[in-house]
Specification:
The protein has 53 residues and is an all-alpha fold. It has one helix and no strands.
Length: 53
Amino acid sequence: MIGPHADFIIASYALTAFVVAALIAWVVLDYASQRRVLGDLEERGVTRRSRKD
């Protein structure tokens, strides 16, 4: 069906899917971490320089 290189093709797609999923997880976890750090700083009264209050 796919041919003599089916194992290589399937392994390549599986590895690519794993790498993309790992990158998405890394971004989601880093985003949550950065939000936590910003929340802690804002609780202590540190404001963003770009914010005009």
